[in-house]
Structures are given as C-alpha cells and as structure tokens.
C-alpha cells in the first residue's frame, strides 16, 4: 500500500513517515501543495494524508484539484485547525476523514486502515486467499496459521497481489505500489521480489502465476 | 465644600441666589413697613400736637392749656400705648404735662413739627414737638407742645405689614425649591437612563449604546463611551485572535512530540529509542522556545506591558545577546561576530529591546547554513541608533519581505524549527520604541535586518560636535 504524506513541518513529516513505513506502508513525503498535486497526477496512491496549512497551494485547494480530476483516492486531513467550520469545509471539499493535531498515532493508523478497507469495499479486516491471510489491522501476513516473515518490499508486492486476488496486476502497477518517489524504480527488481515470495509460499495452497506481457496473479490452487 | 451630587450642586446654584434675593426683598419690605409705621405715627403725633396747641387759650391774661381728650384718643389703636405730653411756654414755663418729658434739643421754627425719639421711663418713645402761637395772646408768646407715644402700636403695624410679606416670600421659596427639584429630576432623567443603560449591560456586552434620541449635551458622552467600548472590543478581539493563533501554533509541535514518543515506544532497539528520545528532547526545547516567544510577543503588543523608560546601551545589549547565543552559533558551525562602530544609546524598554535583538540574531543563525557567518553591527547615524544583523544565508526575496512580519507566517521551504513569530516580535518592539525595521539584501549574500531606534538625547549631544555618521 502506498501512501502520500503532505505535511509542511519537515520533522513531523519525517517521523510520521518512519512510523508508517514500519507499518509496511510505502510512504512518499512532500512538503508543499504544488509538488503533491504533481505527484498525485502522475503516481497511483492508495491514500493521502494531507495537512491543510501548506506553503504555496494550501490543502483545501489541492483537495479540490484532485477531486476535480476525478481522482477518488481516500484523503485524511491532518490539521492544526480543529474548529468545526474547518472540519466541515474539509469534508465538504471531498476529504474522507479529518484528524486534528495533536493526534494519537494509533488513531491515525486505525483511520488509515478504515479508509483502505472502505476503498477496497471489503468490510472484513482480514484478507484471505487459501491459507494465506493478511490482517489489515495488524498489517501482518499469516500462512497456514503461522506468521510469515517478509521484507518491506516483499510485503508490498504480496499485499498488492492479495488485495486483487484473482485479478492480473501489471508490473507497472506493482512498481507504483512498492516504489516511493525517492526509490530507484527498477521493474526488473519486481521479478526478484516475486521469485522470493514464491519460495516463501512454496508448499502452500497459494501460488503466484506469471502472465507474460500482462503481469502477475495470486491464485488459490485447489 | 465639594458636593458629589450633581443634583445637589444644581439645587444649590439655583436656590442659594434665589434665597439671597428673597432675603433682600424681606429686608426691604421690613424697612418699608417701618417707614410706613413712622409716617402714620408721626401724622397722629402731629395731629395730637396741633389739637393741643390750638386749645391753648389766654384767659384773662393767664395762659391756660387743656389737653382735649380727642388728642389722646387718636392713639387708642388697641395696643395700650401710653401717651405723654407737655405744654410749655416758649420762655420755658411748664403749663401742663410731664415735666421730665424730653424736649428737642434744637430750636423750633414756627408752625413746623419736629420729630424725634427718646427713651422715657425706660421705654422708647416717638415724639413730636410743635411751636405754636397762642390764640388770643397779645404779646408774641408761643407755646411748645411735645407729644410722645410708646411704640407698641407702631411695632404692631410693622409686624402686620412685613411678617405677612415675609411669609409669602418663604412660601414662594419653598414652591421654587419644589419646582426646581422636579425640573432637575426630569432634566437629569436622560442622564440617569444612560447610567442605567450602562449598568444594565452584562460584563461581556460591549455593543454600542444607542446615540439617537438623546440630548445634544449627552451625545458627546455617549459617542465617547461607544468609542471607548469599540477600542476595548478591538483589543479583546486582537487578544482572542492571538490566543487562538497561539493555541493553533502549538498543535503541530505537539503532534511532532506525540509522534516521536510513539516511535520511541515502538523502537526495535536501544539506538532507535535513543534517537527518538533525542527528538523528543529537541521538540520539547523548541516548544519551550515557542512558548517564550509567544509570551514575549504578547508583552510587546501595544498595551501588553507598562513601558519602561531607561537608556539602553545598544552595544552592551548586543554583546550580552551574542554571548548568550555563542554556543548555538558554534553548534551550528556559524561564525558570529560583533562590529562596534560607536556608542549607541536608545531610550526604551531594555528587556524588550534585548528580546528583539535575540530574535534577529537567532533567526539569522537558524536560517544560515553551516559554515556561513552572521555579523551584528552597532552604531549611530544622524539622530538614530542603528543595529544591523547580516547573514550569509538564503535571504528573503523582496516580495516576501512584508509578509514575513505576519505572525506565524513561514516561507515555503523554510527549515522545520522556526515558529514564524520572531520577526513579528522584533517589529512590535521596534514599533513600540518609535523606531523602524528594514529588511534588505546583505552584501554578505543573505538578509540584512536594520533596526533604527531613536538616539538617546545624551548620546546625541555627545556626538554632535561635527562627528561624521558612524554607520554608512
């Protein structure tokens, strides 16, 4: 899952990104509205955490522009303005949720999960495919009821495939999901991660199928 | 005597002169009554004297005086006045009457009456003397008739006349007082209503009082009151905005602190935890600095603090500030220097001016990259004390130079730990001291902030004899 964090306080953005990355999210951090607008029009994000007071284009303007493009990416507003008016204005402009600073990191994480679940139209917090299960609350994988240890990149690839179980996920989509803006995006590296994942899934009832020229597919082999 | 009550004051001003006028009136009527009574008494005395004098006859060569009863009956006014008389010949022989009754000291002319007063048998008397030719006398013999009467009837007449008059006057005064009181009550009613309107207002109701339908004398008061309330409202609104803004500004650093704490709690190992805790400490320090700055700003605002008037040595202040910030400069790897071009003393509030210098230098140190330099120059220029802070940092583009004075304004891409109120503080202090703050491009590459403050008169006098400007 790839998140975009737009926050002009460099340190807060930095520390929040650290925590979210530890939660196995791919996190891009931007500090002003213009850059965020550009990134959102070029990249695919699963969720945006948006501060409203930004230099240049402010958060509301950015939100308006994103929604005007027809982009339905879930947006959680994060702002120091806790007034009811501010909250209503943010939600009216198309934000999905609103969190006032200072906030509990746990609460932010819970709200991120809610938004991701809602955008996947899946009320069950646990995604499954055969004996492979992913708890979106703890953000941990289990295979045959045992925890599955994965590197962050492997985690990102497997999560992207599991969310779209039974559907083809292209290499481009995968690379957009797992590489942040600061990463050197190398599509061939995806093959390596898929290879490693196949080894870790070996002996289970879950397989990653390669469709040449199309992408990958997670299947429950019966 | 000071009278606190407006009503009492007005009453005094109206009634005291009125009472004085009436007293004068009563006194005049008393005099008038006396004059009238005197006249009546004198006429009676005159008539009595003539009646007696005309009854003096010469009978066979003997002068014989008889007092006709009618002459005495004239005095019977029911006040039991006693009447005394004597009839003498001009040569001094007593014909009839009271030999010890006083006679007028001066000579009498023929036929005319002389009136005088005297005390007789311990009673005041009014007397009349008449020198009159004797009817039937052959020689030029004359009689002198003196008639005197006690004053009971006279006084009764006076009393009758002026007591009634005085009573009417007092009644008039009382009536006037009552009318004045009613008039005052009605006349002052708008003032009382205004007082009630002000009293009725609740503690935080500062809406203006209606200034229509009000007497022209009161309108300036109401307008002044409304103006005052408008100023108070403005001040309160500014305070509220400030507090709201301040609370708002604390939210992001607090979020950072909370995030760092969460990270520390979840840290995988000791090194990571230490790193997060160091972040917590740094955040706490910058929060403390923000709180201190907010406090300074609220003090620097107009009305925020009683202005202190002292002569501030800018050189000493700058030195003190730079010594305090030396550690921070070393830590940041910045060359911090002081350049004194001459003495500069400015009148004002020492701690606030030092606070302003701290914020200017601190800003310069914060925004100048490591390896750069910050220079503070102090001197005087004309009748200005000048302190300049220059740095080799990125500077402020001209279009941003006015906006950076706005509270909590932070330029795009500014590093994380600035609060955005440092320059607001400096501007408030400099404005409060009657000075000027100028931002421009420094020759060192970064920002040049010039603080122009009025030069203290002592310093100005000392440097006047032909010394050239110390700061170019």
Describe what this molecule looks like in 3D:
The complex is a heterodimer of chains A (222) and B (472). In chain A, the strands form 3 sheets. In chain A, strands 2-1-3-4-5 form a 5-stranded parallel sheet, with helices on both faces. A 4-stranded antiparallel sheet of chain A has the order 6-7-8-9, covered by helices on one side. In chain A, strands 10-11 form a two-stranded antiparallel ribbon. The mean pLDDT of chain A is 87. In chain A, helix 2 (33-42) runs parallel beside helix 3 (59-68) and helix 6 (152-163) crosses helix 8 (187-201). Chain A has 2 domains: 2-119, Rossmann fold (3-Layer(aba) Sandwich), CATH 3.40.50; 126-220, Winged helix-like DNA-binding domain superfamily/Winged helix DNA-binding domain (Arc Repressor Mutant, subunit A, Orthogonal Bundle), CATH 1.10.10.10. In chain A, strand 7 (132-135) and strand 8 form a beta hairpin. Chain A is 41% helix and 23% strand. With 222 residues, chain A is an alpha/beta fold. Chain B is α+β, with helices and mostly antiparallel strands and 472 residues long. Chain B has 3 domains: 6-159, Beta-Lactamase, CATH 3.30.450; 219-300, Orthogonal Bundle (Helix Hairpins); 310-463, Histidine kinase-like ATPase, C-terminal domain (Heat Shock Protein 90, 2-Layer Sandwich), CATH 3.30.565. Chain B has helices at residues 6-54, 69-73, 152-200, 219-266, 270-300, 314-332, 350-367, 422-432, 457-463; strands at residues 57-59, 62-64, 83-89, 94-97, 113-120, 123-133, 142-150, 310-313, 335-340, 345-348, 373-381, 384-391, 436-441, 447-454. In chain B, the strands form 4 sheets. Chain B has a 5-stranded antiparallel sheet with strand order 4-3-7-6-5. Chain B has a 5-stranded mixed sheet with strand order 9-11-12-14-13. In chain B, strands 1-2 form a two-stranded antiparallel ribbon. Chain B is rod-shaped, with a radius of gyration of 52 Å. In chain B, 29% of the residues are buried. The model of chain B is unreliable at 466-472 (pLDDT under 50). The interface between A and B is medium-sized, with 25 and 25 residues.
């Amino acid at each position: 899952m790839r998140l975009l964090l737009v926050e002009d306080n460099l340190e807060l953005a930095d520390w929040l990104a650290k925590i979210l990355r530890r939660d196995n999210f791919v996190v891009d951090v931007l500090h002003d509205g213009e850059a965020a607008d550009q990134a959102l029009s070029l990249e695919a994000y699963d969720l945006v955490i948006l501060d409203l007071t930004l230099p240049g284009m402010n958060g509301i303007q950015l939100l308006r522009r994103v929604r005007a493009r027809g982009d339905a990416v879930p947006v959680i507003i994060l702002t120091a303005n806790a007034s009811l008016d501010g909250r209503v204005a943010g939600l009216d402009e198309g934000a999905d949720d609103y969190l006032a600073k200072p906030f509990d990191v746990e609460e932010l994480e819970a709200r991120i999960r809610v938004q991701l679940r809602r955008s996947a139209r899946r009320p069950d917090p646990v995604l499954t495919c055969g004996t492979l299960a992913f708890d979106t609350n703890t953000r941990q994988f289990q295979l045959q009821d045992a925890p599955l240890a994965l590197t962050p990149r492997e985690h990102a690839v497997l999560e992207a495939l599991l969310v779209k179980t039974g559907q083809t996920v292209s290499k481009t989509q995968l690379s957009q999901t797992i590489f942040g803006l600061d990463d050197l995006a190398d599509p061939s590296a995806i093959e390596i991660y898929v290879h490693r994942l196949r080894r870790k899934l070996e002996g289970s009832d879950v397989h990653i199928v390669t469709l040449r020229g199309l992408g990958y597919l997670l299947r429950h082999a019966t | 005597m000071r009278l606190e009550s407006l009503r009492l004051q007005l009453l005094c001003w109206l009634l005291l002169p009125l009472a004085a006028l009436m007293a004068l009136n009563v006194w005049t009527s008393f005099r008038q009554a006396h004059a009238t009574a005197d006249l009546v008494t004198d006429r009676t005395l005159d008539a009595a004297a003539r009646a007696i004098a005309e009854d003096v006859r010469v009978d066979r060569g003997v002068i014989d005086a008889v007092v006709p009863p009618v002459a005495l009956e004239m005095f019977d006014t029911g006040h039991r006045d006693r009447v005394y008389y004597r009839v003498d010949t001009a040569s001094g022989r007593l014909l009839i009457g009271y030999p010890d009754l006083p006679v007028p000291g001066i000579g009498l002319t023929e036929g005319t009456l002389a009136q005088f007063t005297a005390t007789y048998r311990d009673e005041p008397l009014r007397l009349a003397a008449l020198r009159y030719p004797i009817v039937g006398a052959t020689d030029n013999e004359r009689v002198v008739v003196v008639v005197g009467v006690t004053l009971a009837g006279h006084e009764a007449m006076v009393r009758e006349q002026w007591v009634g008059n005085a009573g009417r006057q007092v009644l008039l005064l009382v009536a006037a007082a009552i009318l004045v009181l009613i008039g005052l009550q009605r006349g002052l009613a708008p003032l009382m209503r205004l007082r009630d309107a002000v009293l009725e207002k609740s503690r935080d109701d500062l809406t203006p009082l209606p200034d229509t339908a009000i007497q022209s004398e009161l309108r300036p008061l109401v307008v002044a009151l409304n103006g005052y309330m408008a100023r108070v409202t403005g001040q309160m609104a500014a305070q509220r905005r400030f507090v709201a803004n301040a609370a708002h500004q604390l939210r992001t650093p607090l979020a950072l602190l909370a995030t760092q704490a969460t990270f520390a709690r979840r840290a995988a190992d000791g090194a990571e935890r230490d790193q997060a805790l160091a972040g917590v400490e740094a955040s706490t320090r910058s929060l403390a600095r923000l709180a201190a700055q907010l406090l300074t700003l609220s003090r620097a605002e107009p009305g925020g603090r009683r202005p202190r008037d002292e002569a501030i040595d800018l050189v000493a202040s700058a030195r003190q500030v730079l010594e305090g910030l030396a550690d921070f400069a070393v830590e940041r790897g910045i060359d911090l220097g002081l350049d004194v071009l001459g003495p500069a003393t400015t009148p004002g509030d020492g701690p606030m001016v030092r606070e302003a210098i701290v914020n200017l230098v601190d800003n310069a140190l914060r925004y100048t990259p490591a390896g750069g330099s910050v220079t503070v120059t102090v001197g005087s220029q004309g009748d200005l004390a000048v302190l300049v802070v220059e740095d080799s940092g990125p500077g402020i583009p001209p279009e941003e130079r006015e906006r950076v004075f706005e509270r909590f304004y932070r330029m795009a891409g500014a590093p994380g730990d600035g609060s955005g109120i440092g320059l607001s503080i400096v501007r408030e202090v400099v404005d409060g001291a009657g000075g000027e703050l100028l931002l421009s491009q420094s020759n060192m590459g970064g920002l040049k902030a010039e603080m122009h403050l009025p030069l203290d008169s002592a310093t100005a006098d000392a440097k006047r004899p032909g010394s050239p400007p110390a700061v170019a």
